[in-house]
Specification:
The protein is an alpha+beta fold and about 575 residues long. About 20% of the residues lie in helices and about 30% in strands. The protein contains ten helices and 33 strands.
Amino acid sequence: MLKRIVLAWVVLLASVVTVSAQDDAVWIQIEARPNLNEATARARVYAADLPDVNGFSLGGGWYGIALGPYARSDAEQVLRVYRSERVIPNDSFIAFTSSFRQQFWPIGANVLNRGVVRAPVPTEPEETTPVLDTPAPPPADETPAQAQRSERQLSRAEREDLQIALQWAGTYQGGIDGAFGRGTRNAMARWQEAKGFDVTGILTTQQRVVLLQDYNSVLDGLGLEVVQDETAGIEMLMPTDAVAFEKYEYPFAHYTGMGDIEATILLISQEGDQTTLFGLYDIMQTLDIVPLDGPRERKDRSFVLVGEDATRVSETRVALQDGQIKGFTVVWPAGDEERRTRLLDEMEKSFVRTEGVIPASASTQEQAIDLVSGLEVRKPRLSRSGFFVDNRGTVLTTSQAVESCTRVTVDSETDAEVAVVNETLGVAVLKPTSTLAPLAIARFSDAQPRLQSEVAAAGFSFEGVLGAPSMTFGTLSDVRGLGGEQNLSRLTMNTLPGDVGGPVLDAGGGVLGMLLPQEQGGRALPDGVRFALDREALQDVLAEAGLAAASTNSAAPIDPVDLSAAATGMTVLVSCWD
């Protein structure tokens, strides 16, 4: 049960502020859950103690709980009060209508298209004594002339900070140059008017303090403090209430999340040159903490790498200087964009290189094939086999390998587009986005297959773990399926799921077909029984894609070494990514 706060709320759910457009409405997102049942249960708990509780789909299987919609200034006040009273999580943040999809709470409601509602406001306790006249507000701390004199004492950096804060407050649109011209003065006047100060266009000393306090309030609760990591040779501001040091894994110092905010910060520190920098850039993009989507910029001596998905945003900033590569990565919850960008700016402004780098020997000795310096390598949801059918790198594979994928790759690195999918046959044709140079291509056998003849299947049996295809040998048991299907061949061999989609070849090196999944018609096959889709069916699918299949007369057996070289040269790993 949430802590009851000492506020009486005036809640007018049906009252719409008609003068506000939908675009002016903002929300306070307080939670996100990975499934609808959990999100509904949490929304019900919040609704027992708080007004204006709503739940929306966020996309990507996530569901958010939000308060509102409120005017921006009201939302910021409610956010500060609720955070301070600890009735909502500390990582709650201002969100926009564009972040939300279908509403699931309250059941049957649809408030996305309405204007703002009146935010809950505190009321004064009942007076037991007569109310006295309200005293006049205190005079300004400085006259305009005094304010202008104190303003002249500001450094350029301090003047630029004020312009940045005015820009954040929404009153200034000009450049950040530290020059207080007409644009800046007008912005100051608009801010004074919004805050209830005398409108002079010149901020007093106290008003400057208020402006900067408002600007920095988004960082409240993060515990920003200067951290000196002597091992990494880095000194900078860090959110010490959000992350704490865990370990060194060359070239990273790991600071992991604690409390309500699921955050990770890496300090990056190593000796190296441009080649090392470019290698780090490539390695970072294989890590699970760097989602695939997002802008990337690599220069001669630095790079910025951003990755984002439905749950998190990862940003890495690294530079090479005097033979040392140093920088940092911040992984932060998605949706908390204002606080994340402010934090990044503060960290970068405070970043100082000190003596030393993380030694190459720094490690917890934790080793695994899917770990790099203690960080998980991004892994595909599913990997299967395929085989090249032309010199441009076009691939035939099983349709199972491309179902519900946001991204398909061949050889783990090259993106591929799905050109044709034949669900009936279970076949897909992939075209790589960049030209590949296959070691070999499939040549379909012209020879009549003979029952009980030796056949071989090539495939990535362990879904890419070994880094190269394997060969599995067996015999051709029938040229029809169990139900007499003319486009199937029955094989006697033991394969693994990763082999599915790979080529099946005769002893002469000609392709007889493509290995199919081990389930047929919803039934699991007995051990040692497999099926391949016939070559003629595959040639028809290629023709549908506008491709001509190469053929060969493979009646005469070839050397097993040559057979293996041809089979593995044409076989490629096909991966499906979420």
